[in-house]
Amino acid sequence: MKKEETYPRSFSHIGITVPNIKEAVKFYSEVMGWYTIMAPSTVKKESDTAIGQMCIDVFGEDWEQFEIAHLSTSDGIGIELFSFPHGIKETPEFNPFSTGLFHFCVQDPNIENLVDKIVSAGGKQRMPIREYYPNDKPYKMCYVQDPFGIVFEIYTHSYELTYSSGAYQN
């Protein structure tokens, strides 16, 4: 048996289910500044198209159609928004202790401004803005949620800088 090389894979995109696709595209493009790559469109359950068959493979047979939109961050990470007509439209329960996706994180050096924009657009600030290393490094973070109840985090600096021991050492 040939040993396969392990190497770091890049992050391509994240899929988020929202109750209203048009409101979500508006929030994520106007507040987060993400680019709309594909405006909201409808996907129908049809086995004679490639996208229809792929969606049947993923979602099974218990659906007829849904809406989808594609956005992108400034560094090319995709945001795939889904809205299902018969999906649950209530805010998901925040439960970081259960197995599953807990949150995603975005980066903005002006964390205070972004938190204010999120709150002004109907989202919530879940905690005070905190410094990771007070008096040592200028790194801040904050958990927020969008108007649809999806929790995410904001960092002021990159993941590598935040957790590397050599950055900003005295």
Automatic annotation (TrEMBL):
Domain VOC, residue spans: 10-157
Keywords noted in UniProt: Lyase, Metal-binding
UniProt GO molecular function: lyase activity
Keyword Transcription among UniProt keywords: no
Listed Pfam families: Glyoxalase (PF00903)
UniProt-listed InterPro entries: Glyas_Bleomycin-R_OHBP_Dase, Glyas_Fos-R_dOase_dom, Lactoylglutathione_lyase, MMCE/EMCE_epimerase, VOC_core
Top-level taxon: Bacteria
PANTHER family in the record: BLR8189 PROTEIN, METHYLMALONYL-COA EPIMERASE
Protein name per Swiss-Prot or TrEMBL: Lactoylglutathione lyase family protein
Organism: Pontibacter aquaedesilientis
